[in-house]
Design brief:
With about 210 residues, this protein is mainly alpha-helical. The chain has eight helices and two strands, in the order ββαααααααα. The protein has a two-stranded antiparallel ribbon. A hairpin with a 2-residue loop joins β1 (about 5-10) and β2. The N and C termini lie far apart (about 55 Å).
Length: about 210
């Protein structure tokens, strides 16, 4: 799988690496499918993790391990959406806002997880190129995927917070394609968040007896 770490082409003086390009394209597809609440969101997310796992395996053990966790969460998301499928009128999952307890739990898990993972990365430098921001991105991604699996509108906000740190770091570390697609990511996240937000409001409104569906 060495070709995944080779240069695909150069754009605006930046080297575009195959694994970075393929992973980001699959990421864009995943976001678009997530916006549509398609069950195919999770297989594509799993494939994206698999591509990056193959690219990192053997020389970046920590990065490969993080992708293994992402793939495991993608499997959980597939199972959760299969179970919740059909709860909305269109046959898909029904988006909802998290409760305040759920929000507090996710924020607490994100904070504690970031500290714990950053300390692990610091103790074992071979696991990460930049322990604290890398831990923030990794834990934030897992939390966002968990919220998405639960159908929470807040998962879009979590993705935005991850991208605000992840995109500049990708540029700084030579993964230029991640920066070039940021505008598309941002647009998809904002449109997807608006769509889920509106759907959650409609699904929470009570239906009066005798009213048309």
């Amino acid at each position: 799988m060495n070709w995944l770490n080779s240069e695909a082409f150069t754009l605006f003086g930046q080297r575009i690496i195959w694994s970075d390009m393929v992973g980001n394209i699959l990421g864009l597809i995943t976001l678009a499918l997530g916006w549509r609440r398609s069950l195919w969101t999770w297989p594509v997310q799993f494939l994206s993790g698999l591509v990056l796992f193959a690219a990192f395996y053997g020389h970046l053990t920590g990065s490969a391990g993080k992708q293994a966790v992402v793939m495991a969460v993608a499997l959980y998301g597939w199972w959760q959406w299969r179970r919740d499928q059909g709860r909305a009128e269109d046959g898909h999952i029904a988006p909802r806002f998290a409760s305040w307890r759920e929000r507090a739990a996710m924020l607490g898990a994100a904070a504690a997880g970031t500290v714990a993972v950053a300390l692990l990365f610091t103790a074992y430098p071979s696991l990460s190129w930049d322990p604290w921001p890398d831990a923030y991105i990794f834990v934030g991604t897992v939390v966002a995927m968990y919220a998405q699996a639960k159908g929470m509108v807040e998962f879009w906000i979590a993705w935005l917070l991850v991208d605000l740190v992840g995109v500049p770091l990708n540029f700084a570390n030579g993964y230029a394609f991640s920066g070039f697609v940021y505008v598309i990511y941002g647009a998809l996240v904002l449109w997807g968040m608006r769509d889920w937000w509106l759907r959650s409001r409609r699904s929470s409104q009570p239906v009066l007896e005798g009213a048309p569906a």
